[in-house]
Amino acid sequence: MKAFAMLGIGKTGWIEKERPACGPLDAILRPIALAPCTSDVHTVWEGAVGDRYNLILGHEGVGEVMEVGPLVKDFKPGDIVIIPAITPDWNSLEAQAGFSMHSHGMLGGWKFSNIKDGLFGEFIHVNDADGNLALLPEGVAPETAAMLSDMVPTGFHGVELADIQFGDKVCVIGIGPVGLMAVRGAVLRGASDIFAVGSRPNCVAIAKEYGASDIINYKDGSILEQVMAKTGGHGVDRVVIAGGDNDTFDEAIKMLKPGGVIGNVNYLGAGDYVKIPRVEWGVGMGHKTIRGGLMSGGRLRMEKLAALVQTGRIDPSKLITHRFEGLDKVEEALMLMKDKPKDLIKPVVTVKW
Question: How far is the C-alpha of 195 from the C-alpha of 173, rounded, in Å?
Answer without folding.
Answer: 8
